[in-house]
Amino acid sequence: MNIPKTPLMKNWQYIADQTFINKLMFIDWQAIFLRLVSSNEGSKFTLSQAILAIEQYGLLLHLISKYPHKKMIPNEEMDVVLHAHIANTEQFEKDCINLFETKLVHVAEVGTKAEGRQEWLLAFAQTHSLFQRNFGQDAIASSIPACCELLLRFT
Predict the structure, then answer these.
(1) Is-contact 46 37, C-beta < 8 A?
(2) Do residues 78 and 146 lie in contact, with contact meaning Cβ atoms separated by under 8 Å?
(3) For 105-126, what is each residue's pLDDT tens digit?
(4) Burial of 78 (0-12, 13-18, 19+ CB in 10 A)
(5) Residue-range domain boundaries for the chain
(6) How far apart are CA 2 and CA 31, in angstroms?
(7) Sign of CA dihedral 91, 97, 100, 103
(8) Residue 130: phi, psi to the nearest 5?
(9) What integer is the mean pLDDT of 140-146?
(10) Reported confidence tier of residue 5, pLDDT bands at 50, 70, 90
(11) Rounded CA gap, 79 and 67, in Å?
């Protein structure tokens, strides 16, 4: 039940920026994968679900890098990968500094209240549109938005 420490997922080929792909390879995908398939939190993924979710998460990280001032709303599967990545807080911060030269902020509970729901749904639609524009129609299947947003922290 192992994946390579630095898997090159099939859709990562669409990322034109080889430098960013090289940065992605420094992430400990093995640890994230194992958290996904052996989770005690009720969101245990099958092997194929974990690989697909990791693949999409890598694409999301690229979009965050390419569009640093946009709010990104992941789908639920990408959010589970994000939480598996955040589980090792120190390593997550190092990975974000390597990828973005700044920290990535995960804002929870977004879109759960009526007053911010429209903005959250619009941001998810924009994230979905960026996936399609950058990686093709099938890069992200129809999905449910996670109740969070991701922002780069500029200080």
Answers:
(1) yes
(2) yes
(3) 887 766 666 777 788 889 889 9
(4) buried
(5) 11-153
(6) 10
(7) positive
(8) -65, -40
(9) 76
(10) very low
(11) 19
| 8-63 tens-digit pLDDT | 566 677 676 889 989 999 999 999 999 999 866 556 788 888 998 999 999 999 99
The pLDDT value recorded for residue 6 is 46
**Token pair belonging to 155:** 């200080």
* Lookup: tokens for 37: 């398939």
* Spatial contact of 84 and 35, defined as CB atoms under 8 Å apart: yes
The mean pLDDT value for 74-88 works out to: 93
Name residue 108's beta-bridge partners.
Answer: 148
Where are the strands (E) in 24-147, listed by range?
103-108
* Separation CA 149–CA 27 (nearest Å): 21
Q: What residue has token string 């999301």?
A: 60
| Separation between Cα atoms, residue 71 and residue 149, nearest integer Å | 6
Q: For residues 57 and 67, give the distance between their C-alpha atoms in angstroms, rounded to a whole number.
A: 15
How does DSSP classify residue 12? G
Q: Name the helix (H) or strand (E) containing 151.
A: strand 148-153
